[in-house]
Amino acid sequence: MRLFNSLLFLAFTFCTTAAQAQKSNAAPSQHLRYNFPSDAQLKMQKVKITHSAYTTYFSVFNWTGGYAGLQQTPDSSSGASKILIASQWDPNTAGGVFAKLAYAGEKTKYSRFGGEGDGAKTINPFNWELNTWYNFVIKCWKQGNEQYIATFVQNLGTGVWFHTSTLLIPTREIYLGARSGAFLENWVGEDPRWDGRFVRKAWFKDCWNMNPKGEWEKSTARWFSANDNDARRNGRYDRAFNAGYSAKEDAYFMEHGGDVQPGPDFGTGRRVDLPAQAGQGDKPQLTIGAVASREAKYEAGAVNVSWLPNPSKSPQFASKVEITGKDGVVIQTTEETLPQKRSAQIKTELAKGEYSARVTITDIFGGISKPLAVKFSVK
User: Which superkingdom (predicted)?
Assistant: First the structure.
């Protein structure tokens, strides 16, 4: 009997010690990956979050050297707890080759990050909503010795687009790379207020690449995997993951935490291949960018032109402003690739008379708007 009691005590002590040692119970980190035939100058994918909790990152896009997505964080210093984030790693931090900020949208904040590599990031108090589809676009272009990577998001409920930021690195051989990825992360497992006991779930669909020639490509392979080396970090939730394709939603899903369990396709593993999305089609259905309003005024030897694009049409990528005479002949033109550009000053000496300023924009998908003209006088 004494021996039994001693063994019972030792077993209890071991279990208690093990339980105390297991301080982290994070939901498993997991990845949705796509292969494409070519490098991409543009990547696009839709996301809908149906279950969330604090310390969750729904990364919608991973590309070569960067990622962007939606987070729910207990830190609301940016102005909200449901934020929009875009990040780009430094090409060579030790060598002094850094990722930098080229543009920050309204309320978007820029900072450096470190810990898992170093780089540039932007955070916007986007206040995303559950059960709402968002369309993410990552657009990359090269100018001289610099390469720009811009993040655009469209709320598909309202149709409105938002350009949160453009990050900048020195020009490299590739644009965004041939592979796309998304991931789901519960980044705090030690605090029961934010750990893996909460279910997180998101849906993804219509993942596209536009190659450097401007051709649309669909993925040639898709798969899901849950990290297989985080058992200690995940604790009791190490098998609380699942993913798949729903014909009803015509979308892929990832979920983890709580009482989530792997579907039968996983067996005892942590990886599963995914079928092609049935309803994706041969190319995306897009609007063409449009100029919603414009103004022009001549003073001090210059024509000052301003305009606003339609926020529910495909976002502006480049602009062209033409000054024409009463006869419609173009007198002077200025063009620039700059998504956030909304005005132009054209220095020119004009005789008294009637003129027009004509604004045309090219959108991020290559669509060209109808020219919109406004008259002005020189007196």
Answer: Bacteria
Classify domain 24-273 by CATH architecture. Answer: Sandwich (2.60)
User: What's residue 134's pLDDT?
Assistant: 99
The string of DSSP letters for 282-343 reads: SS-------EEEEEEEEETTEEEEEEEE-TTSPPEEEEEEEEE-TT--EEEEEEEE-TT--E
Two tokens at 58? Answer: 């729904």
Residue 178 DSSP SS3: coil
End-to-end CA distance of the chain: 111
- Which two structure tokens, joined as six digits, stand for 53? 């909790």
63: which residues sit within 8 A by CB, 6+ positions away? 40, 43, 138, 149, 176, 177, 179, 180
DSSP label at residue 154: E
- The whole-angstrom separation of Cα 234 and Cα 30 is 12
Sequence spans of domains, the chain? 24-273, 291-378
Q: Which fold has domain 291-378?
A: Immunoglobulin-like (2.60.40)
The Cβ of residue 331 has, within 10 Å, a number of other Cβ atoms equal to 14
- Give CA–CA dist 339/322, Å, rounded: 18
- Residue (of 102, 171, 99, 180) closest to 138 by Cα position: 180
Taking phi over 0 as left and psi of -120 to 50 as alpha, with beta for the rest, 62 belongs to beta
Quote the CA–CA distance of 362 and 344 in Å, as a whole number.
Answer: 16
Determine the pLDDT at residue 116.
Answer: 81
Q: What is the pLDDT of residues 134-169, one digit of tens each?
A: 999 999 999 999 999 999 999 999 999 999 999 999
Would the pTM of this model clear 0.90, i.e. be above it? Answer: yes
Cβ partners under 8 Å of residue 106, min gap 6: none
Please state, in angstroms and rounded to a whole number, the distance separating the CA atoms of residues 28 and 100.
32
By CB neighbour count within 10 A (0-12 exposed, 13-18 middle, 19+ buried), where does 173 fall?
A: exposed
| Residue 376, H or E segment | strand 372-378
